Amino acid sequence: MKKIVVIGGGTMGNGIAHVCAMSGYSVKLVDANEQALDRAMILIEKNLDRMLAKEKITQAQKLETLERLHPALSISQSVLEADLIIEAVPEILSLKESVLREADSVAPENAILASNTSSISITKLASMTSRSDRFIGMHFFNPVPVMKLVEVVRGLDTSQRTVDAIMKTAEFLGKTPVEVQDSPGFVSNRVLMPMINEAIFCLQEGVGNAEQVDEVMKLGMAHPMGPLRLADFIGLDVCLNILNVLYEGFKDPKYRPSPLLVKMVDAGKLGDKTGQGFYLHGK
Predict the structure, then answer these.
(1) What residues are labeled active site?
(2) What is the set of domains in the chain, with CATH numbers?
């Protein structure tokens, strides 16, 4: 692997591009929205400056990382020589399908396609391409430069060669890859989201306020961040989307999203990114 293309300049996409470029790969970061792409590049440089201030990298490493990063607006022009293409667009199936089909149609035959989806079936996404054996899940965690885990998700047709290549690549990025099988929510969100959802039910039913619910989980279960604060950080719309995937995938009422969560999303109170969720977040 020498050339990586990351599609999507949002929080996850720019974090993945940052880590790949820091690890020595030539990286193209693609987003159809030029303003979003500009914001992503500015944010990557700010994060590098933060690492520089903490003496985690040198000035030379910062400049080398930025030199390896190439912003682009066109998927088809960017993936022509790619070894690995990582899709990191929002959790909207139709959007992912459009992006993956375009990348698949022009990418080199041996290129691996990976999705950073947090809950959508890798097998289903792979079926939208002509390379289901070279399609895999690479579920990074936010913030990508800090979090060590990469959930490597094997689809029904994913080859062992593809799994081995992605496990090695994740390790080269300084991450700890954990291989899991394709299932709604994989392991991480299948366990995490019901906990967050139950915390929201506790809040909805008046068992405790947001601070009380979070404090119990932090002090009693050694969680570094309470589930309601974590939901705000993830984005309440993202949490709702994942719960809906779980509910649809398993047809089990235990995954039914809390009515309060649905109301919060309907009201546009999505957490950190809108300034208000279960907590108020000042700029």
Answers:
(1) 118, 139, 151, 189
(2) 3-181 (3.40.50.720), 189-266 (1.10.1040.50)
Query: Model confidence over 191-213: pLDDT tens digits?
Result: 999 999 999 999 999 999 999 99
- β-partners of residue 70 are 28
Nearest residue to 92 via CA among 125, 131, 137, 139: 125
Whole-prediction pTM value?
0.92
H helices within the chain, ranges in order?
11-22, 34-53, 59-68, 75-78, 93-106, 122-126, 160-172, 188-204, 210-221, 227-234, 236-250, 259-266
Q: Are 137 and 117 in contact (CB under 8 A)?
A: yes
Locus of tokens 């097998």: 123
- Per-residue pLDDT tens over the stretch 129-170: 999 999 999 999 999 999 999 999 999 999 999 999 999 999
